[in-house]
Amino acid sequence: xxxxxxxxxxxxxxxxxxxxxxxxxxxxxxxxxxxxxxxxxxxxxxxxxxxxxxxxxxxxxxxxxxxxxxxxxxxxxxxxxxxxxxxxxxxxxxxxxxxxxxxxxxxxxxxxxxxxxxxxxxxxxxxxxxxxxxxxxxxxxxxxxxxxxxxxxxxxxxxxxxxxxxxxxxxxxxxxxxxxxxxxxxxxxxxxxxxxxxxxxxxxxxxxxxxxxxxxxxxxxxxxxxxxxxxxxxxxxxxxxxxxxxxxxxxxxxxxxxxxxx
Length: 262
Prior knowledge:
Elements: H1 2-20, H2 25-35, H3 40-64, H4 73-100, H5 105-128, H6 140-157, H7 163-173, H8 177-201, H9 210-233, H10 236-261
């Protein structure tokens, strides 16, 4: 039964994550945390692997699509470079907190609390974004710094980017929803790659059945393919609505997780 839950959560989260550019881990991580069928540390690792597979597929399809939204490779590369550094820092921060807390479940409470705060802020910004004046950052250094912050949060939370990516891209680069989704997935791909390499090199990979990661990565790939197709066909206003609905669901799940862990 637990494998059915994992497959369904991983696939549908990857589909939605690919459509909205939020990675999917922002759904996988709190939902599987709430079920309690896998340890917090294992969920973080497997969620990152699933999101990585989804992002690679989605980015590849986006770059090959001649009808994709405007994509500045220089800005994307600077953001990705920062995301690599941030991914390593975020992974180190996670391991540091994990080693200092005697109960690993408390790490889940910390992650849920941070994710709750980020999601509430994201929801508020998204609702009122039409009233907010945005920037148009183009410098290499600011792009690297922004990418670093996003990569660090992605790796620490084990969510592969999440809604914070879109808000930052909306505000600092004046992007539309679909354009921000493409950049977000690009950032996620690099930050999660860095996080995975760090785990392998430092031998901090948790124990889990091989079938579990095989199923989740496969769901990430299939979800990325399905989500990319849907994203091309639906209008931006529907992507916005889906994004807002997800924020509400994620907030409720994280409130539940905080209460459970405490």
